[in-house]
# Entry
Amino acid sequence: MDTNKKLIARIGGVFVAILLFLTFFSSTIYNFNLPGVVVEYPRQGVLTNYAEGRGIVEFARMELHHAEGAGRITLLVSEGETVTAGSELYFIESDIEDLRKSLDERLQGGERLEMRTERARADLQHARNSLANLKNEAGSGGFDAPEYDYEIQRIQALIGAAERELGDLEALFELGAASQREIDDMEYALGSLALQLQQQQDRKQRALESYNRAVEAGARELESRRAGIEKAVADCEFQIGDLEFETAANRQEIDRLKSQIDAGGRIAALAGSGGAVREIRAGLETGAHVGKNDLIMRVGAADGGFRTTVDLPESVDFLNVGDPVTLRIRSRDIYGLGGEVSSLAFFNGRLRTGVAFDSENVGGGETVEVTVQSTSQLYDLLVPVRALRSDQYGDYILYAEKSRGALGDEFIARKNQVRVLGHDSHNAAIIMFSSDDRLAIIVSSDKGVSDGDRVRIVDGSDIVAIK
# Structure
């Protein structure tokens, strides 16, 4: 009997062990078949958008040097050379006789300019006097209203006397002392006087209208004459200004010619400010002949700052003129240099961005890397962009909800509609249509997940706080 009891106990123990093993093993197999998800919690933060581009450093201000006179040129600098304010860039040698001839022509031209200027000033004064004396001469005879009013009042007085006489005749007629013919004659006389009164009033009205028309026509003529004289004044003022500018330029050229003659025919060009020679006209060499006003070279002025142009993606929509940017010029070991956006324009599907900056360690021509960045306000809820999903109702997220199942704690994917306030490359700012913003949001999964699916939390996600 004891042996049988022991055998039965052993068999029971084995059976219970098998049940426990199968229960644990089947639960483990089931859980491993569930989608594995990574969860994160929403957090406070800001959105940061940025973009990068490359450009070439250029001087913001360029001095253009043109030949002040014709002659043979001697170059004293080369492209890329650094220059200081007042240093000689080149000089031009001209024939002395040619210079003297040009000087005589300029002196004679100056005399002619003075004569033309005096005539223009006399014309201007005459036009101003005419404008001051301008007046409306139309209707100068005036409208003599009292003349018409006197006649009207005289007729009205006659009408008043006739009406009184008619009243007396009618009274006498009632007494038999006046005849009907006398009454009819008086009524006829009254009608005649009324007609005379109307005619006189009409004559006055016609005379007044004629006078007003004459005044209006005179005003129009006056305005036309005024406009013509004012244009003449403006033309004279413009002509005088033009002549004065031409006279100043002529005097400047006379001074230059005198200086060049005194220097033996040589005239030097000086740098207006410190900087670097950015370009010498192609093919120009020492000994070449140049004509007056020929472009000789371009010199970048360091005191005007520097600029560059970079092309950024068209999707960069957060930039405005005046926004700060960061620059790197690796060839000069310059990092973290500040600048600002000076211009914005779309070109060939790119955002062409002009950037202005200052530096004492660049000379133009270097490659510069520009970084633009925009930081948003502080948002209460940031989630990874990859956590966002969308359907016909809009954007939503899935979160993991903990529940008690037959085999222990289970995690169910739940749907929550959201509104996206903004995003950058990594995160999105959202508003959740839920009273609870501490939800374990499903960021990624190794299988497709839908609302109501059971899921498995992986990768060390914090499951303690999951509700």
Q: What stands out?
A: The CA atoms of residues 310 and 349 lie 13 Å apart. Helices lie at 2-33, 96-132, 145-175, 180-262. The first strand starts at residue 36 and ends at 40.
